[in-house]
Design brief:
mainly alpha; 11 helices; about 0% strand; transmembrane helix
Length: about 280
């Protein structure tokens, strides 16, 4: 395909993408997310200015975001684990259900439209944002995380939905763990590990889903663009530990408010993009 954006705009957007990578890296450590909630809309705009076909633009944004999340989640997870904050028992029980959900999500992504992916992203982000903003700790579904088969079903659902959103699962996992009485700091730390379980098979799945698709830009393998990954990954990996440090200094309520406001802004942006 032929790129249509002037070189000046490409340079400017590359700088914006690098900045988004820095923000995503901090968010990875701060919220236990892979940064996809900020990367997906920025990648979408980046690809739009490059003249990438709208039919594959959202899919590329989601798939590339999952690729970027891999090293970011690993770096964030290791930093949280060093502080003893990760629930390793939960992660071990999700070693199969979460990737299984990712596989199903990748299969769905091969057929769902770009607007469909946007709508999924916006709806889930709004629900989770509302929970974070208005729940002061009183809303609980139980005193502890349920065992199997409920745990496995929830893990599979988190993997599926997060794959379709292009995120590392922190959005869903934070909500799940806090609804069952776990501290927000433990939820954030464990979510970084969940991101690893989602991002690796998710990237592979989007490569497969987009294999041979028309309209893909240069340096793409399926719905994953290697050039965008090369620009963003080093920055996100470098700054993720700063977010981890910040997460352990904030209060539970402060962490919830920041997370909820952030998600709500992203959801509004995607809803607006459906009509503009």
């Amino acid at each position: 395909m032929e790129l249509t954006a002037p070189i000046g705009e490409i340079v400017m957007l590359a700088a914006a993408l690098a900045t988004a990578g820095a923000v995503a890296g901090v968010l990875a450590g701060l919220f236990g997310i892979g940064g996809g909630a900020i990367l997906v809309p920025v990648l979408y705009q980046f690809l739009a200015f490059l003249g990438v076909d709208e039919a594959v633009r959202m899919h590329l944004s989601v798939g590339t975001s999952l690729g970027i999340i891999i090293p970011t989640s690993i770096r964030s997870f290791m930093a949280h684990k060093a502080r003893g904050a990760v629930d390793m028992e939960l992660l071990k029980t999700w070693a199969i259900p979460v990737p299984a959900g990712v596989v199903i999500g990748s299969l769905i992504a091969a057929y769902v439209s770009a607007d469909g992916l946007k709508l999924i992203f916006a709806v889930i982000a709004t629900v989770v944002a509302a929970k974070m903003l208005f729940d002061r700790g009183g809303l609980r579904l139980g005193d502890d995380i349920p065992g199997n088969p409920v745990r496995a079903i929830i893990g599979g659902f988190i993997g599926l939905v997060s794959t379709l959103m292009g995120i590392g699962g922190g959005v869903m996992n934070n909500t799940f763990m806090t609804l069952y009485g776990r501290p927000i700091h433990q939820a954030v730390a464990t979510s970084a590990g969940t991101g690893t379980l989602i991002s690796v098979p998710g990237m592979i799945g989007f490569m497969w889903a987009g294999w041979g698709a028309p309209g893909l830009p240069p340096f793409s393998i399926g719905y994953v663009n290697l050039l965008a990954m090369l620009l963003v990954v080093p920055i996100t990996v470098l700054v993720a530990p700063f977010g981890v440090s910040l997460a352990h200094r904030l209060s539970r309520r402060g962490l919830q408010l920041f997370f909820g406001i952030f998600l709500l802004i992203v959801a509004v942006r995607f809803v607006l993009s459906l009509f503009l």
